[in-house]
Design brief:
The chain is an alpha/beta fold and 328 residues long. Helix content is 38%, strand content 18%. Helix 1 packs across helix 7, helix 2 packs parallel to helix 4 and helix 6 crosses helix 10. The structure holds uridine-5'-diphosphate-4-deoxy-4-fluoro-alpha-D-galactose.
């Protein structure tokens, strides 16, 4: 069965590509390489260089291939960047998903998996956050994903497209095969930055605010291993063959503060990892932890990497073997 993975050269997309190939799918990756890496794409996948914002390129792709389903990852993904450059998100991300859905529905594609986000929940009434929580995006990034979810809703009503939006909490870790891991052009994510300190590439990590309403004053996040994300994508895709469209919140269900992440990384790496205290970062929410009951019950999904230490260990292996990422 042939599937399309947009953004398959990126961090999360490249891991899903490997898991799809292992499950026996034929995979075509479509990526503009603006933040992804050609080397991250498994050799068994076909690679097409292109940009979803150019609808002509999307039409050419669908004219050349027949897809049973789509996994859509290609987008800008950074909460803080979206607070500084909102139109990269409110225009580019929205146009990309609109073009993809317009052409996909014209070609009768039946199943669609959206990479969505926990940044939909700016003001959660209950932690952990269930699918019943009101969607109030916390940034232009979250808003762009909320719009993509709404686009899907209408494509289902009008064209019968089956979809699943997976709202992930904080993706982390690397493939234990050692070939792929996290490598962003400008690193803003906590775990890679902490590990760059352990590698001696940075002097310290700056903690973005210690005055949040959390037990140690630093932000709490639910870190989920990228392979656990991947297995949920495959499960969700397969369930759409005879099940309804739906949304799932996707995390381990356990939150760790920034301070706890640093302490765990100290244990894993044996490095002191000095910290400095900085200001709050615009767009950050105090606590984001998933209630993963629904996906566990409906898909039988379970995270294999339940402990933060085990997740950081896989990331540490990747950073040690690829200290300059894919290009080093
Ligand atoms: N942080 C620091 N210092 C740093 C980097 C990060 O204190 O040098 C803090 C952040 O302020 C935040 C926490 O660590 O409180 C996690 O930050 P990340 O940048 O690693 O991740 P985010 O929670 O901002 O965002 C990630 C993805 C988004 C997704 C979100 C969902 O980048 O795409 O998780 O929770 F929407």
């Amino acid at each position: 069965m042939q599937v399309l993975v947009t953004g398959g050269a990126g961090y999360i997309g490249s891991h899903i590509v490997e898991v799809l190939l292992d499950a026996g799918y034929d995979v075509i990756v479509f990526d503009n390489l603006s933040t992804g890496h050609r080397q991250a794409v498994a050799p068994k996948a076909m690679f097409v260089h292109g940009d979803l914002r150019q609808i002509g390129q999307v039409e050419d792709l669908f004219a050349a291939h027949e897809f049973a389903g789509i996994f859509h990852f290609a987008s800008y993904i950074l909460v803080p960047e979206s607070m500084q450059k909102p139109w990269m998100y409110l225009r580019d991300n929205v146009v990309a998903s609109a073009n993809l859905l317009e052409v996909a529905t014209r070609h009768g594609v039946g199943r669609f998996i959206l990479s969505s986000t926990a940044n939909l929940f700016d003001d959660p009434q209950r932690i952990p956050i269930s699918e019943e929580e009101h969607v109030i995006p916390g940034s232009p990034y979250g808003e762009s994903k909320a719009i993509a979810e709404r686009q899907l809703l209408w494509m289902e009503r009008i064209h019968g497209l089956k979809y699943c939006a997976l709202r992930y909490f904080n993706a982390a870790g690397a493939h234990p095969n050692g070939h792929i891991g996290e490598d962003h052009p400008v690193e803003t994510h906590l775990i890679p930055i902490v590990l760059q300190v352990a590698l001696g590439q940075r002097d310290h990590i700056t903690i973005n605010g210690t005055d949040y309403d959390t037990p140690d004053g630093t932000c709490i996040r639910d870190y989920i291993h990228v392979l656990d994300l991947a297995s949920a994508h495959v499960g969700a895709f397969e369930s759409l063959a005879d099940g309804p469209s739906r949304n799932y919140n996707l995390g381990t269900g356990r939150g760790y503060s920034v301070q706890e992440v640093v302490e765990t990384a100290r244990k894993v790496t044996g490095h002191a990892i000095p910290v400095q205290i900085g200001e709050r970062r615009a767009g950050d929410l105090p606590a984001l932890v998933a209630d993963n009951t629904r996906i566990k019950q409906e898909l039988g999904w379970e995270p294999e990497f339940a402990e933060l230490g085990a997740i950081i260990e896989t990331a540490w292996k990747w950073h040690q073997s690829h200290p300059r990422g894919f290009n080093g």
